[in-house]
User: Fold this.
Amino acid sequence: MTRSLATPFTRHAGVAVPLIGGPMYPCSNPELVAAVSAAGGLGVVQPVSLTYVHGHGFREGIRYIRSLTDKPIGMNALIEASSKKYFQRMSAWIDVALEEGVRFFITSLGNPRWVVERVHAVGGVVYHDVTSAKWAEKGLAGGVDGLIAVNRRAGGHAGDKSPEELFVELSRFEVPLVCAGGVASGERFAHAIRLGYAAVQIGTRLIATRECTAAEPYKQAIVGAGEEDIVLSERLTGVPVAVIDTPYVRRMGLRASPFERWMLRGRRRKHWMRMAYALKSLWQLKRASLDETGRRDYWQAGKSAGDVHSIVSVREIVDELAAALEALPARVQ
Ligand SMILES: Cc1cc2nc3c(=O)[nH]c(=O)nc-3n(C[C@H](O)[C@H](O)[C@H](O)COP(=O)(O)O)c2cc1C
Assistant:
């Protein structure tokens, strides 16, 4: 008997496969987002990547993605109130996304209540990024419909728990949980769904695809990396971010400097330090991801890089993951 791929997540998002193409700064080019959705998963727009890295106006960029696929897409909203100007811009982007028909939102940091109110008003859903029960409680108090459980194997800002530990910790909330981190093979995908996750969010695997417009040396570095080549660096944002261990990363060191750590301790100082980090790292990561010479070897990737052995199309990845799930015995959803 073929297993149904339907889960509470697929019903929320209106997609066929319980898979999210995670938002990635700077790697979420519009063609990549569209390809994930077209293949049956949910492609998620990273707004700063869409505009600052890939040069689209926000509304025009969403329309461009929608010209490539008529399947649902999502949007990532980093809602930490870091500055009034940033907040106003994110708020306007959310309104534009809603006007353009986006109905699935992933909020990161901050209190998601105001996003939930706007999105629920038009029948959409909001999932919130969390790394522990403490953050899940805050997100759920804001009314979110599901949780993105970011584990310690994730690319981007990693959590500190294993996918199994995090599932046990979060399952008492009885909302759909999405496993974010460490999945790039059918085997790991099926394992996460068997644990009870309603979907899996992938990032690293999608960079080594034909549809991703990241530079070839970046893609090849992911193909060549093993799990042990992924290290956590505080030098980008002050909190650990997973990067490939390259000569550049070794020269920079992995820990924040004593001055940066001092800045991060005070409430006010922390605000300025975060702003400085954001400006510097947005620029550095953009340059590195697009540099075809490979000299700027500053590349984010998670431990799932160990399961990436070739550059393929997004559809091949989605088909492989869906097939691994279909092979599982059917169970009551
Ligand atoms: C290069 C890169 C950039 C990322 N940028 C973001 C981001 O801007 N916002 C976000 O919520 N998650 C970001 N992530 C996390 C992904 O959305 C996803 O949760 C993660 O990659 C899953 O782990 P995996 O890389 O092992 O598949 C990023 C991940 C990578 C690899």
Observations:
- The pocket of flavin mononucleotide is lined by residues 22-25, 27, 46, 76, 108, 129, 153-156, 180-183, 201-205, 300-302, 304 (CB under 6 Å).
- The CA atoms of residues 39 and 318 lie 6 Å apart.
